[in-house]
Amino acid sequence: MNNIPTARRGRTHYQRGPNDNRGLSGICSVIFLLLLFLLPPILFYGSEGRRHARYVTLREAISSDIVELNRDLDGDALRALERSGGSNLEALIPGEALVHGTAGAIDAVTTDGAMGVSIPGSLALRRNTQYCQWQELQSQHCQTCT
Length: 146
Description:
single chain; 146 residues; alpha+beta; two-stranded antiparallel ribbon; two-stranded parallel sheet
């Protein structure tokens, strides 16, 4: 007996040939071609979006006020700022300004009590952030149904 599966329609017999197992390779080639043609424009669009965002950020930075700590603020103003702990920073520096400063020698020690580490001649930057969270509620009342 013949073990090859056949199909019959009327007097015509259909048998599987040696090239009938190409179904999966055809699907793979279609997927490959789709990726080949669709992926480069998507990647190009993403990189152009990042480039544009960087351009906008740099343009805003260039057009904003730049405060140089060593030139625009004298030593007395910087010492007063240091004594106050930065609380009157808004009075010395405008809100939307970029701040730039250099220092020749730093006379400070940064310590981490939890790890027991202290590093002389280093700075520690601190940031206080606030998070606001809210919940929105929505309801509908039908006067004719009650």
